[in-house]
Each structure stands twice: as structure tokens, then as C-alpha cells.
Specification:
The complex is a heterodimer of chains A (about 140) and B (about 550). With about 140 residues, chain A is mostly helical. Chain A has helices at about 1-20, 45-60, 70-80, 100-105, 110-115. Chain A contains 5 helices and no strands. Chain B is of the alpha/beta class and about 550 residues long. Chain B has one domain (about 1-70, about 80-535): FAD/NAD(P)-binding domain, CATH 3.50.50. Chain B has 10 helices and 15 strands. Chain B is globular and about 75 Å long. The chains are: A mainly alpha (about 140), B alpha/beta (about 550).
Chain lengths: ~140, ~550
């Protein structure tokens, strides 16, 4: 992804966490009388996950989680997620660990879709109708 | 309780899309004072749309918060949308016409009911609805898709994905074209052109998709209507010694101790398939113990809709989901029964791009956790094939007992019995259901084979979409509630408009038909009032 994309993704995740509202009315579907509201913020539990990753990093590597190598960080995250079942990326709000929350947030984004397809699709963004029929242009590579 | 009296020419109960069509046309063509009563709140201002959309995308929040009244969770199929603009504030803007056969099912196929009007009767009002809302459309082959005049707006162009998918359906021998939609392909009247940001349902932030609140804003700004939101109509009352409706009794939710009496020459009930019947059924009195317009006993009966069969088909195509996922291909090729079959089946067919089966995932099939580059690499492998979503609505012919009933065991906040919606298939529809769903599945399998693909998954939705009925139209007052214009057989100055008047719900999205019927009703309602001038005459 490159450092710039990583920073954009993590900044967007922080914005999402800061913008979460408990008790907000959620979209209700056609044909259903049920009205639902957003639940408790997942952020407090995710903050504990982050502290636990940091504690594990210090115990195993003698340094803060943010300063150890990517490989070591991935190993700690793998260990933390090992017991979690399921193939699918869950809905961000129900992510049981902050790592899954970050993954769910990024991989649901327009930017991730473009990265995967290596194409400027721009999902959910305003784009000229006239370009509808064109094959999406390739994403610029460095 | 004090009473405040409002005098007007036309009183419209409800402010959804059917009400908007009636008010729009009447105010364009006739000199008549119009009062509109809406129980729900105002719609959010247009300046809020971008922010509301952002919250919806990020958090799944409703872009139309407080669009319902608490404690009105009706049993059965009910969409909780009660605000200025009604349920069409949520719609996807999809506007197919019904086919000519929809209006003559009994005559042509010996099932269901004929309508009290023909496709040709409705054609000019379909056209008018399309022009007022700004429908962008492509005409299909005229033998399948007849229309009196061409669309006035160019069709939404097919996306790259839909072009690929149309090649596929063509190879299977199925002609398909761009789905007509109430989404501007060209900017006009302060509304932006569609910029395919793909949240048509539930919210278009640029005004490309028509919403009824647009009409109300314009009519209110021009002084053409007086719209009272948060005003709940409790009942309609007939004049002493006459069948004419004289008064709508209402209560403002902001001033519950004040009774509001709206006296009008004409009353228009435009509250959708639940609350229209409900208002008539609860407007009881000594002369009308079973409610207004109910001498046939059919108010609340024959609720109708259509079910769908849907599948996701994996195809060896390089597709790019997200170019414009809510736009689709459509065909009417199956809207008349196949000559080779002696059993009744009519359905539409739509095809969309889809990301089903193409999502990023957390683990491999072997259960290995994917992180970082491995996750992205796995995802890229998964998108080497494409997915098409295919869906067919087939019409469900309603039983008489497909009904809105009053449940006295529950009381609304106003002390009246709760409505309960129970959709029931007629005997003929029950007998046909398995055959119909199997035949549609066979069609999907044929499509998959034609594209060297496979069906990833298939489902039948029990939900009956675009529900309608409850005040069915007909020529026989003993077998119907309203005539073809929505005028009740029992009360000369009482009309029901839009969805409730439909005897059957067709096999395509119904909103354009609700609008066309409402405009036709408005043409009849308007005859009582002086014309505004020839320049604004109706078709």
C-alpha cells in the first residue's frame, strides 16, 4: 500500500472512531416496522485491545508495539486474532478486536476497491455520468 | 377541546409521492386552494443532504431521521416512513411502466382481475409522470415496451459493466436495455444530473433522483399549497343527510388540545396502502358503521404485491463493481406468458453488477488468517471473475382476505385499534407459486450456462414488494371501492389515489404506476375547479 496510503487509512479510521454516535437512528429497510439504533461505541474495547498489544510487545520484544518491526507486529496481531472464527470481514461496528475494526474499515472503502482492482473506479464518489461506459482507468503506480 | 377551522377547496391527506402528483397537477392546471395534511415531520432541508449521506455511508445511520411516528409498528409488511414526502423519500427512483397485459389479466389469462382502465388510458399519464419527475429512459423494443411518446430525457448510459452484461444476456437470446429511472441524465430546474455516487437508495445528495419533497418545496414557495406537517387526521365525516364528505378532523402533534377541522369541497386520501384503508375504516359513525366508502365491504381487502426470485451468477468476465451499482438492465420479454406454456407466469428481469463473492476476506478456505499483502493478494485473485445479480419480480394475485384488519387488542397512541397487515395469495397464486419460482430459476440457470458461469446463490424473498391495494378500483360498486379515477363509489367528493386503488401489483416496480394513476385522478378532481389557462393543460 505504501506509507502514504497507510497513513490515509489510519487517519480515516481515527475519524470514524471519533465520529461514532451511540443511539443514532439507523436506516430502516422497506417493509419492516422495526426501527433500530446504533449500539455502544466499540472504541473503549478497542482501546483495551491496543493496550494489550502494547503490553504483549513490551513483554516479548522489550519495546512499544508501535516501534517493533512489521513482522513482529503482525505476529502479535495474529496471536490476538487466532481464536476468532469466520472467513468474512465483519461489519466494523461488531469487530471484536481493533485490528479487525481497522481491516473492516479500510477494506470497505472506495480506496481499497481501487487498490484491489488497480483501477480508478471511485465507488460511492460523484463522477461524471459521461464516463459511465468507459473501462475504469488504471491506478497510477509509483 | 377548542376547534380551529380551515376552509379550502381540496384537502389532501398524506404528502407522499401520490399526494405530490395530485397537488402538483391541480395547482398547475386549476384555480383551487389546496391544503395538505401530513402526520409526520418535515423532511430535512436540502442543505443537509450531503452530511446525511456521509453519516449513512460511514455509520449506516438513517438519512431521514425521525421519519416515523413512535409506537406505530404495525404487524405485517409496513415501511416506517411518515414524513413530508412519505416512503418515496427512500425509494431508488426506478420507474418501469407496467405492461399492457397487467391491466387485463382476467380477460387475457383467466386469472386475477382486470383493471377498470387499460394501458392506453394510462399511457398519457405515464408520460406526464415521467416528464414531471424527470425520468431518463431508453425505450425497449416497441412490441414489448409500447409508449405513445418518446422519453424526453436521454437514458442513463450503460456502465462498462452493464455493457458487458448486456452482451452476455444477448448471447442468451434476451434483449435488455437501460432501466428507466427518475434520475436526471441532464441537469434541470436546480437539480443536478446523476453523478452515479450510488446511494440513490436511500439518499441522492445532488437532487438527480426525484423526491416528493422537491415538489412540496416548490409549491409552498409559490403559495400553491398550504402543507401542515405534524398534523394527524383522525377521521373524515360525512355531511348530515348526504354522502358528501364535509370535514376532516385532525389534531396537531404540537397542539394536541386543539382540534382542527378542515372543511373542503373535495377530499383526497393519499396515505399509501396501509393508512388510506385505515383512515376509511376508522371513520365510522351511525350511518357508516363499517367506515367510509365501504358499502362493498372491500376497504382494506385485496392487498397486493409481488415477490422476487434473485440469484448471483459468477461469470468469467472482468467487471469493476462500483461504477454505478444501482443502475441495471431490464427486459419486459417475460411479461406475457410463454405461448408454449398453459400455466400463468409473468415476470420482469433485471441485471446488475455485483460484488457478491468478490469481497475481501479474512481467512483462506483452509482457515489461514490473511493480513497485509496476503489479504490484498487473495482479494485480487477473487476478483478475476465477475458477478451478476439477477432478479425477477413475479406478480402475486391477492386473495380477498389479503387485508388490512383492525386489531382491537392493540391501541394506537390515539386510542384507535391498531392496523394489522396480512398479505395472502389467492388460491390460483398458491397453486402456481412453486411452478413460477422453478421456471424463473430455470431461466437463471440458462443464463449462467450461456455465460459459462455458475449460480453462487439463489433466494426467494417472502416479502411482497411495492405493496398496494386496499381500495381496489372497479366498475362494479359491489366488487370495488373506487372507480378508475379513484373516486369512491359511495362518496362523490372523496377520492383515494395511487397504490391503494390497484387491483393487482404487476411484476415491476410500482411507483411510476402509482404516480400515473394519481395524475389521472387529479385530472378528474380538477374538473370541478376553474382552469388556470390553456398553456398548462394536462395531456
Amino acid at each position: 500500500m505504501g506509507r502514504a496510503r497507510l497513513e490515509i487509512a489510519s487517519d480515516a479510521f481515527w475519524r470514524w472512531m471519533n465520529g461514532y454516535r451511540e443511539g443514532a437512528e439507523l436506516l430502516h429497510p422497506y417493509g419492516s416496522p422495526r426501527i433500530s439504533y446504533s449500539g455502544p461505541s466499540p472504541v473503549p474495547n478497542w482501546t483495551k485491545d491496543l493496550a494489550e498489544l502494547d503490553r504483549a510487545a513490551r513483554a516479548k520484544h522489550g519495546a512499544a508495539f508501535s516501534t517493533i518491526s512489521v513482522a513482529n507486529r503482525q505476529a502479535l496481531v495474529r496471536a490476538a486474532l487466532d481464536d476468532l472464527k469466520g472467513e468474512r470481514l465483519v461489519n466494523i461496528v461488531s469487530a471484536p478486536h481493533i485490528a479487525l475494526g481497522l481491516l473492516a474499515h479500510f477494506y470497505d472503502s472506495s480506496e481499497a476497491t481501487d487498490l484491489c482492482y488497480r483501477a480508478q473506479i471511485g465507488r460511492n464518489k460523484c463522477r461524471p455520468l459521461a464516463h459511465n461506459g468507459r473501462k475504469p482507468l488504471p491506478v497510477a503506480t509509483l | 377541546m377548542s376547534a380551529r377551522v380551515i376552509e379550502t377547496d381540496v384537502c389532501i391527506v398524506g404528502s407522499g409521492i401520490s399526494a405530490a402528483m395530485v397537488a402538483w397537477k391541480l395547482s398547475d392546471t386549476r384555480r383551487a386552494e389546496i391544503v395538505v395534511l401530513e402526520a409526520g415531520d418535515e423532511a430535512p432541508p436540502t442543505s443537509d443532504l450531503h452530511a446525511l449521506r456521509s453519516r449513512f455511508l460511514a455509520y449506516g445511520e438513517s438519512p431521514w431521521p425521525r421519519d416515523h411516528l413512535d409506537d406505530l409498528d404495525v404487524a405485517g409488511i409496513q415501511s416506517r416512513s411518515m414524513q413530508v414526502g412519505g416512503l418515496a423519500m427512500h425509494w431508488g427512483g426506478v420507474t418501469p411502466r407496467f405492461s399492457p397485459e397487467d391491466f387485463r389479466l382476467r380477460s387475457l389469462y383467466g386469472v386475477g382481475s382486470d383493471w377498470a382502465l387499460t394501458y392506453d388510458d394510462l399511457d398519457p399519464f405515464y408520460q406526464e409522470a415521467e416528464e414531471r419527475m424527470g425520468v431518463a429512459g431508453e425505450q425497449g423494443p416497441s412490441v414489448l415496451d409500447p409508449r405513445g411518446k418518446p422519453f424526453t430525457l436521454p437514458a442513463l448510459p450503460l456502465t462498462y459493466n452493464l455493457t458487458m452484461l448486456r452482451d452476455w444476456t444477448t448471447s442468451a437470446g434476451i434483449p435488455m436495455w437501460s432501466q428507466p429511472s427518475a434520475k436526471l441524465s441532464v441537469a434541470r430546474e436546480g437539480r443536478g444530473a446523476c453523478c452515479r455516487n450510488d446511494t440513490c437508495f436511500p439518499i441522492c445528495p445532488v437532487g438527480a433522483k426525484y423526491n416528493p419533497d422537491m415538489t412540496w418545496r416548490a409549491l409552498r414557495a409559490n403559495g400553491r399549497v398550504r402543507l401542515h406537517s405534524r398534523t394527524h387526521v383522525r377521521r373524515l365525516l360525512a355531511k348530515q343527510g348526504s354522502n358528501q364528505i364535509e370535514v376532516a378532523e385532525a389534531v396537531s402533534r404540537d397542539r394536541p388540545t386543539e382540534q382542527l377541522q378542515i372543511r373542503a369541497k373535495t377530499f383526497v386520501v393519499a396515505c399509501g396502502y396501509v393508512w388510506s384503508s385505515y383512515l376509511l375504516l376508522t371513520s365510522t359513525g351511525t350511518r357508516f358503521p363499517s367506515g367510509l366508502a365501504n358499502s362493498s365491504g372491500l376497504v382494506g381487502k385485496y392487498l397486493c404485491g409481488h415477490r422476487n426470485v434473485q440469484a448471483f451468477i459468477e461469470l468469467p468476465l472482468e467487471l469493476y463493481p462500483g461504477i454505478n451499482e444501482q443502475h441495471s438492465l431490464v427486459t419486459k420479454a417475460f411479461m406475457r406468458p410463454a405461448p408454449s406454456s398453459d400455466r400463468y407466469l409473468r415476470h420482469d428481469l433485471r441485471v446488475w453488477e455485483s460484488s457478491v463473492g468478490r469481497e475481501a476476506r479474512l481467512r483462506t478456505d483452509a482457515g489461514v488468517l490473511l493480513l497485509g499483502d496476503a489479504l490484498l493478494a487473495d482479494w485480487r485473485e477473487r476478483v478475476k471473475k465477475g458477478t451478476a445479480r439477477v432478479r425477477s419480480y413475479y406478480d402475486v394475485l391477492p386473495a380477498r382476505e389479503s387485508e388490512l384488519a383492525l386489531d382491537s387488542s392493540r391501541k394506537t397512541p390515539w386510542g384507535t385499534p391498531f392496523p394489522a397487515v396480512m398479505m395472502r395469495d389467492s388460491g390460483e397464486s398458491k397453486a402456481l407459486r412453486r411452478y413460477q419460482e422453478e421456471e424463473i430459476t430455470k431461466l437463471f440457470e440458462r443464463l449462467a450456462r450461456a455465460g459459462n458461469g455458475r449460480i453462487l446463490r439463489k433466494n426467494v424473498d417472502e416479502f411482497q414488494d411495492h405493496p398496494a391495494g386496499g381500495c381496489r378500483m372497479g366498475t362494479n360498486p359491489g366488487q370495488s371501492v373506487v372507480d378508475s379515477y379513484g373516486r369512491t363509489h359511495d362518496h362523490e367528493n372523496l377520492f383515494v389515489v395511487g397504490a391503494p386503488t390497484m387491483p393487482t401489483a404487476g411484476c415491476a416496480n410500482g411507483t411510476l404506476t402509482f404516480c400515473a394513476l394519481s395524475l389521472r385522478s387529479a385530472s378528474k378532481i380538477g374538473e370541478t375547479f376553474p382552469a388556470r389557462g390553456p398553456a398548462t393543460e394536462s395531456p
